[in-house]
Amino acid sequence: MQEEPQTPLPRGAIVCLSLAAFGSGVALRINDPLLPRLAREFGIGVGEAAQVISLFAIAYGLAQLMFGPLGDRFGKYRVIACATVACTLASLLCALAPGFAELRLARLLAGMTAAAIIPLSMAWIGDVVDYAERQPVLARFLIGQIVGLSAGVALGGFAADHLSWRVPYVLLTVFFACIALALFTIDRRLPARARLQRAGEGGSALARIVDDFGHVLAQPWARMILLTVYLEGVCLYGPFAFFATHLHERLGLSLSAAGLVVMLFGAGGFIYAMAARRLVGALGESGLALGGGLLMVAALVTMALTPSWLLALPVALATGLGFYMMHNTLQLNATQMAPARRGAAVASFASCFFLGQSTGVALSGQLVGRIGTPWLFSAGAAGLLLVSLAFTRRLRRRERMQAAAAA
User: Fold this and answer.
1) Is the pLDDT of residue 333 over 70?
2) What is the Cβ-side half-sphere exposure of residue 4, based on CA atoms within 13 angstroms?
3) For residue 230, what pLDDT is reported?
4) Would you say 343 and 120 are in contact if contact means Cβ atoms under 8 Å apart?
């Protein structure tokens, strides 16, 4: 038993989690460039078509209330593996949906099933990686999600112009089935330290879930992190869902070309993941959060004002870089909000983020037809400026207090 903490993780354990996050990222963003195609095919407005995005995000956010405690009690890696099986079935239902109502329902189910993957992976990494090394490891893990977000937009754009909208979901079905098999294989080989789970406690399951989340929400810093990530989701991802539509309808790009431009969001995230260790050392947590927020603000304002799609290339890149600079700082703090309830803590974080996204997409869908995409991007920039300044101020105060306590 003394040797167990030193037992290495199976080769590919984190890589497989990153691949599962890739699938989750594809599922999340695949409909962004498909919105005009879905609107034409089903005879609805673009705002209504955006429900396939907002419903996924709502289900994803609310399902965290279930998966976080499940991961804490039954083992996070195993729950992730089970969830990828459910993602396989949900993707198949999306591919087979006969109408828009059925597609909305299937997307709701897809959001519920994908909900376990990224937050429980982050919580599992928090269990097995020391805090001092955790931010770069989290950044490398998120390469899967980053590339998935880009691939989802590109695949959706290509399908919108050249294929059926069903094809991406068929590909997702096959991918999730393969990654589920790999995850179950690795789960059987994990050492005990990587199978951390809390023993069952007395009382009903509902009472235990309420206790888990009550423990998280009792922490003032946790409440600050959760509010910040919710507002980040509202202010960025609401407008961002209409980037491809803006490029297509206002700047004259085809949907497939618009999808390729939006892919650069993921390239910006990839740059951050590769440079995370150096950026953390140079800027610190508060510097990363402020710099990322200001970069997103500048990118959204530029997107609102540019008359040329060429400027959209650096804008998409800067948006991705700025987002991951700020969001990864929030993620790092989320893994340490409540270590005794890490699954519930990170699930709360993901829940707030995706509920923020769904709120933002729903609001943006209502506003885009009235004020247009340029004003929509400008409103998002104003919100992000306030959010990043407020969070950075609180983070710097916390850093000073921690430094004083350590002195």
Assistant:
1) yes
2) 10
3) 93
4) yes
Q: Is 203 exposed, middle or buried (0-12, 13-18, 19+ CB in 10 A)?
A: exposed
Rounded to whole angstroms, the Cα distance separating 123 from 298 reads: 32
Provide φ and ψ at 274, rounded to 5°.
-70, -30
Helix 342-406 and helix 51-74, axial crossing angle in degrees, nearest 10: 80
Distance of CA 273 to the CA centre of its chain: 15
Quote the Cα angle for 377-381-382, to 5°. 120
Instruction: Collect all residues with Cβ–Cβ distance below 8 Å to 199 and sequence separation of at least 6.
Output: none
Across 15-24, 125-134, 355-364, least confident range: 125-134
Judge contact between 68 and 339, C-beta under 8 A: no
CB 247 within 8 A of CB 357: no
For 11-195+204-406, CATH number?
1.20.1250.20
- Give the up-direction half-sphere exposure of residue 306: CA atoms within 13 A in the CB hemisphere: 21
Note the pTM of the prediction, 2 decimals.
0.68
